[in-house]
Structure formats: C-alpha cells, structure tokens
C-alpha cells in the first residue's frame, strides 16, 4: 500500500510527463527517441560484431589469427584495455597465454599462470566466471603478467572456456573504465566458446595428422617387409624347394620319407609369401582384370586338381559335384581361380581327418555361384564377417595348430570385389561352414 506522502511525488512526475508531451506538437520527440533507441542500437551492433567473428571461423584463417580476432573483439565490445586467452598445459600443470592484443602476446607467451595463485586458475578449477572491480586488492591476481606488460590490473572479467562439456582454458578482459556489465559477461562467454572450438579443433586435427603419419610410417615398414619377402625370401626359397624336390625324386626309401615334411613346410611357406605379395598388390591397385567367357566348372576342376595333394595330406576328401550343363561367365580366370584356391585351402586346413570338402556350381538369381562346403570346425557367428579381414585369426591357438597368417580369405574377397562379385561365409546346420563366391551375370570393366 502507498500512503499519501509517497504517492504525491509519483503523481507529480506523472503529471509532468503528461504536461511535457501535451506542450509539444503531435509528433515524436526525436531527442527522447534517440535516447530510447540507443541501447537497442548498441545491442544490435554487438550482435553484428559477434556474428562477424562467428562467420570468420569458416574463413581460411590460421587458428592464431582467429584467436587474435577474438581477443580484439572482446576488448572492443567490453571497452577493455586488454583481453587474452589462456589454455591448460597438461605437462606443466599450469595455464599458458595463447592469444592477447597486438604487442602483448610476445611478452605474455612465456608466462606460466599457476592454478592455485591466480584468478585464471581459480576460474579454471571451479569452472565459474568471475568479475571484480577491485583487482588492486585481490591477492588472486597473478602480477607476473602485469610486470611483463608494465601496467597494473584494476578491473577484471574472466570466464571459463568449454568444449563439449570440458573446460579447456580461460578468457579474460581487463581494465574497463566502468564496471563490467552482464552484457559484457555474455559477450565474453560467446567469444570464449568460439575460441575453445577453434583451439580444440586444431588439437584434434593435429592428433589425426600425427596418427596418419604414424600409419604411413607403419605402411612403409610393411612395404619394406613385403619387398624383402618377395625377393630375399621367395627367391632362395624357390631354389631350396627345387633342390628338395629333386633330391626326393632321385632317391627311394628313407631319404624320400625324411625329405617329405621339409618339402611340405617349404611349400607352405611359399604359399604364405605369395599371399602376402598378392594382398599388397591388390591394396595398391596394381594390375588390370583380364576378363573372358569362362566355363566355370572347368575352372573349378582345374583349381581343385591343384589342391588335391594337399587334401590327401590332410586326409580330407575333395569332391566337385558334376553339372549337367555348361555354366559360362565373363570373369578373370586367374583372379577367380586365386579366390577359389584360397577358399579351398581354408576348407582343407580347418577340416578334420576323414572330413570332406565339397564344391558345387550353380546359376543363381543374381549371378553364378561357387559354393564350398566343409565338415570342419565351423566359424563363431560373430566372426563370419571378420574372417575376411587381413591377418584376422578366429582364435590364437588355431594359428599355432593350422598355420597361416589370415590373408587367404582377405585376398579372396578382394579378388571378388574388383570383379563386381562377392563372397560370404555361413555355418552349416549339420556342422562345418559354407563359403559362397558369386559373380554377377553382367558387369562392366574393373581395374585393380
């Protein structure tokens, strides 16, 4: 409630305002309009300036130049004599200046700001903003920066910089002639968010570039190793294998029996080396497909004959089901044959003594299919797709038991992919696995 004594002044002011308006002509008071519109004009200019800084984040500016633009805008919008950005240095466990006004950053770049004896450290640790107009008496002010710039700090606005919910640094504005306002705080908070995004994006880019360089270095090491494997190992291995085969063929009895395991071991090593070289050539895109119309069953019989001896050594029965009609398909016989050879080797090596590997050719709805079924150990459901990844082994003990480097199926997939075909694996209900190679009925040229 208002008593009479308190209502009279209000009434007088109200009456005076009415009197002033009635005493003027019936038009706007331009002086009063300017006064009323000035805050809105200032607010609009402030938004335009912030929007301009935001737009520049997409320009081809370096991060340092963009941060320089941000601190310059921060000083301008808050009418401060100084503005700076500090980020946390993990190794030193302190804050470091990364941006300041022109002429100041060189002096501040070497300054370490502790987390426990500075306003910036207080803001960073508590992740809260801070405004003070009595900085001369504030013990938290880190005076080293003042000494470097040969000036003092009497007013300060500091806000934390966040990126994806994580505090990455602090932005400060100092020495405004008047008190800092809420508009100043909001402006600096927006600029701090822009700065945090630019700094962290640069860090992520540098990390990805470093990871890419490391991957390239590993790739070069792999190339060097494959070059050694293709020449320094394969060439002498061929000579050793030829010598062993000739010695075994020229002798009967005990010597042939003794040399047999050595010949098989050398052949297995040669197969591994050839798979590595083939995989590397495919990865680099070397070579070109040589396509022609091929009798698929004839190609299957040829490849099956090539692994028959290996099947017999593993006591695995290899069966190619007859087809009552010829199935022709336009394909690269060498590449398709290599894919089928690797799948058959897999069906033999991971089978059981007395087991069976069966090959069937059929003309499916989407292409010609070659199915290889075995009675082996099968594949865990979660690994049915992974087995086509280079160097992948289902279980480590399988590698020691059966040998191999996990390249055969990866090479088979690459051979099929570059012809526009596909290959997939599945487990049979009765046990073992089924690999299906499919070539489309019609496809264009392919290169690798």
UniProtKB/TrEMBL annotation:
<dbReference type="InterPro" id="IPR036097">
    <property type="entry name" value="HisK_dim/P_sf"/>
</dbReference>
<dbReference type="InterPro" id="IPR003661">
    <property type="entry name" value="HisK_dim/P_dom"/>
</dbReference>
<keyword id="KW-0418">Kinase</keyword>
<dbReference type="InterPro" id="IPR003594">
    <property type="entry name" value="HATPase_dom"/>
</dbReference>
<dbReference type="Pfam" id="PF02518">
    <property type="entry name" value="HATPase_c"/>
</dbReference>
<dbReference type="InterPro" id="IPR036890">
    <property type="entry name" value="HATPase_C_sf"/>
</dbReference>
<dbReference type="Pfam" id="PF13185">
    <property type="entry name" value="GAF_2"/>
</dbReference>
<protein>
    <recommendedName>
        <fullName>histidine kinase</fullName>
        <ecNumber>2.7.13.3</ecNumber>
    </recommendedName>
</protein>
<dbReference type="InterPro" id="IPR005467">
    <property type="entry name" value="His_kinase_dom"/>
</dbReference>
<keyword id="KW-0902">Two-component regulatory system</keyword>
<dbReference type="InterPro" id="IPR004358">
    <property type="entry name" value="Sig_transdc_His_kin-like_C"/>
</dbReference>
<dbReference type="InterPro" id="IPR003018">
    <property type="entry name" value="GAF"/>
</dbReference>
<dbReference type="Pfam" id="PF00512">
    <property type="entry name" value="HisKA"/>
</dbReference>
<feature type="domain" description="Histidine kinase">
    <location>
        <begin position="228"/>
        <end position="443"/>
    </location>
</feature>
<keyword id="KW-0597">Phosphoprotein</keyword>
<keyword id="KW-0808">Transferase</keyword>
<dbReference type="InterPro" id="IPR029016">
    <property type="entry name" value="GAF-like_dom_sf"/>
</dbReference>
<dbReference type="GO" id="GO:0000155">
    <property type="term" value="F:phosphorelay sensor kinase activity"/>
</dbReference>
């Amino acid at each position: 409630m208002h008593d009479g004594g308190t209502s009279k002044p209000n009434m007088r002011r109200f009456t005076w305002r009415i009197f002033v308006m009635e005493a003027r002509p019936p038009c706007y008071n331009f002086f009063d309009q300017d006064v009323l519109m000035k805050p809105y004009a200032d607010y609009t200019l402030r938004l335009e300036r912030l929007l301009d800084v935001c737009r520049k984040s997409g320009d081809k500016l370096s991060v340092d130049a963009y941060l320089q633009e941000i601190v310059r805008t921060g000083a301008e919008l808050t009418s401060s004599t100084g503005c700076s950005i500090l980020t946390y240095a993990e190794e030193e466990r302190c804050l470091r200046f990364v941006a300041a006004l022109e002429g100041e950053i060189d002096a501040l770049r070497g300054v370490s700001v502790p987390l426990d004896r500075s306003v910036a450290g207080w803001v960073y640790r508590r992740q809260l903003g801070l405004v003070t107009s009595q900085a001369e008496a504030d013990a938290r002010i880190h005076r080293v920066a003042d000494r470097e710039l040969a000036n003092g700090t009497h007013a300060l606005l500091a806000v934390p910089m966040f990126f994806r919910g994580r505090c990455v640094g602090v932005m400060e504005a100092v020495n405004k002639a008047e008190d800092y306002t809420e508009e100043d705080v909001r402006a600096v908070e927006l600029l701090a968010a822009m700065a945090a995004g630019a700094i962290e994006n640069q860090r992520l880019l540098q990390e990805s570039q470093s990871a890419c360089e490391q991957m390239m270095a590993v790739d070069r090491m792999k190339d060097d190793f494959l070059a050694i494997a293709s020449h320094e190992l394969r060439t002498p291995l061929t000579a050793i294998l030829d010598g062993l085969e000739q010695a075994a063929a020229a002798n009967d009895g005990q010597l042939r029996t003794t040399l047999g395991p050595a010949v098989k071991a050398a052949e297995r090593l040669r197969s591994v080396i050839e798979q590595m070289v083939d995989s590397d050539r495919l990865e680099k895109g070397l070579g070109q497909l040589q396509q022609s119309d091929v009798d698929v069953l004839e190609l299957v019989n040829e490849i099956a004959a090539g692994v028959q001896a290996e099947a017999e050594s593993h006591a695995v029965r290899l069966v190619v089901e007859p087809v009552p009609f010829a199935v022709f398909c336009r394909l690269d016989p060498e590449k398709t044959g290599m894919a089928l050879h690797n799948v058959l080797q897999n069906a033999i090596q991971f089978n059981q003594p007395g087991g069976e590997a069966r090959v069937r050719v059929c003309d499916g709805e989407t292409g010609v299919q070659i199915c290889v079924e075995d009675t082996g150990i099968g594949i865990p459901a979660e690994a049915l797709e992974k087995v086509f990844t280079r160097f992948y082994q289902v279980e480590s003990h399988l590698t020691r038991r059966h040998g191999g480097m996990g390249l055969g199926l990866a090479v088979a997939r690459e051979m099929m992919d570059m012809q526009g075909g596909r290959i997939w694996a599945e487990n049979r209900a009765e046990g073992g696995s089924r690999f299906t190679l499919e070539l489309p009925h019609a496809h264009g040229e392919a290169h690798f």
